[in-house]
Amino acid sequence: MGEVLIGIDIGTTGVKVAMFDTAGELVASSYQPHDTSYPAPDHVEQRPQDWIDGTLEGLRKVLAQSAIDPKCVAGISFSGQMMGQIPIDCNGNLLEESVPIWADQRAKAEAARFLEDFGGHEAYYDITYQGHPVHMTSIFRMMWYAKNKPEVFARAVKWLHAKEYVLYFLTGAMATEPTDQCLGGAFDLKAGKHSAQILSCANLSADLFPDMVESTDVAGKISPKIAELTGLQAGTPVSVGAGDGPCAAAGSAAIAEGDAYFYLGSALWGGTIESQPFGDFSSRMICYRHLIPGLYHSQYVSFTGAIGQQWFVENSYSELEGADAYERALAEVAAIGDEATPMFLPFLRPGGAPHQHGNASGVFYGLRNEHKRAHLYKSVVMGIAHSLQVLYDDVTRVTGRKIDELTIIGGGARNPLLMQSVSSGLGIPVQLLADQEANCLAAALCAGVGVGIWPNASAAKESGIFQRTARYQPDPAKKEELALAQAKFRTSIEIAKQLWSLEPN
Fold first, then answer.
1. What is the mean pLDDT of the chain?
2. pTM value?
3. Which superfamily is assigned to 4-240 in CATH?
4. Which of 468, 465, 467, 449 shows the shortest CA–CA distance to 457?
5. Domain 255-436+478-505 belongs to what topology?
6. Which residues pair with 212 in a beta bridge?
């Protein structure tokens, strides 16, 4: 075998390590789960050592599975969970055994105080283009540390994101890049650098972050110690990589202006690739740098995606496991044909688009005696499809972009009923890709560009590394029915907002 590339995805639930050849074929992969702890209300933490252990074990496993000569590993890079803040002291030591991750919400008071001092949320959004709940971004947890753990804050000379900590452990090099810094909370998107105005208001300084390079830049090389621990060759180049959101975009082949994609995993997000930032404060559109310089990704994020169908299947088809349960659910849906089903709002996690409501919850509307589990399962699937369409419509409204084809990746894309419903609802083809581990593939792309296998990401795409599979065409016979259902879905959200607002915050 010729040269191979390794992509490492530091995810929320585990570390995925995948090896690809330069044609994009998956050679070997390994997944090592890790735990999340909840030590106090609003506190969500993980141990950086678990990321290291998962990475080292994954590297050992893919090298063993592939039986490849380590000299053939041309480069390594990363995808990583975003909104991190890992404090490192002047000797390069980790200061906290367990650190907050993106889902942590402890910094609400710090964010509220900052926005009041800064002149309001919209003024902050106009610089950062970040539609996420403000308190979930990195700098506000750094402010929390300054107030609540001043001894840690005083000793921290650098604050790293998840993938950057693993990069540092493997190579001894510290570096960051624009995609992760976009969700760090202090990045001026148009200027392409940290905002002095934001940092000043937060009582932070730019030197708390590593030097910024591009995602494809080689930041360091595998150290002799790591070579001994994993079997890799010492000196193997390692590129810094990108955040998991931008990697999902690149891994779906959305690497040119006008490309569009959605990721449908436990959460749901997606949008278009643009040559300039697009934002909309009223709908909290999120925009950040693509891993390709000069491009941006404008998107919306719903915190509930395919986890909605997972929740229903695990609870209502518990006599079966895994794929068998989903196959039974789809077979039962086929048997009921066009029988009426309830409406389902799939917002099992609060916050996020399209409602931006902190008390959001799932809602069934229109339940009747004759409804069985198949009717409810179909309504759950359709609710997810309707939610995606709302986000899609908002993206096209803000960007003015006409989309001719939508690529969808993630575990939810395996559901043919869901994919056909999305295609028919949007009125455009939906394209799926081979199960190539999209985030790891994007990380491998960063590595490949970094070491010169391809001159740029476009050349990598043209070489055929993104492999298309199923393609769904819209069913014109469903157009009127789905348009009516979409209108009911949107109305149901507005009514539900009134109910959610009655709940205590």
1. 96
2. 0.93
3. ATPase, nucleotide binding domain (3.30.420.40)
4. 449
5. Nucleotidyltransferase; domain 5 (3.30.420)
6. 176
Q: Is the pLDDT of residue 1 over 80?
A: no
- The pLDDT-based confidence of 366 (bands split at 50, 70, 90) is very high
Please report how the helices 108-118 and 121-128 are oriented relative to each other, as an axis angle in degrees rounded to 10. 90
The two tokens of residue 399 are: 């960007």
Alpha carbons 306 and 315: distance in angstroms, whole number: 15
Residue spans per domain, the chain: 4-240, 255-436+478-505
Nearest to 247 by CA among 16, 421, 2, 484: 16
Instruction: Point out which residues pair with 302 in neighbouring strands.
Output: 268, 352
Q: Do domains 4-240 and 255-436+478-505 have the same CATH topology?
A: yes
Using CA atoms, how far apart are residues 214 and 429, in angstroms rounded to an integer?
Answer: 33
Scanning 345-478, the segments in alpha helix (DSSP H) are 373-399, 416-426, 438-450, 457-462
Lookup: tokens for 323:
């794929």
CB proximity list for 47: less than 8 A, separation 6 or greater: 34, 35, 97, 98, 99
CB 10 within 8 A of CB 80: yes
Which ranges of 130-282 would DSSP assign to H, the alpha helix? 138-148, 150-155, 162-171, 178-182, 196-201, 224-230, 244-251
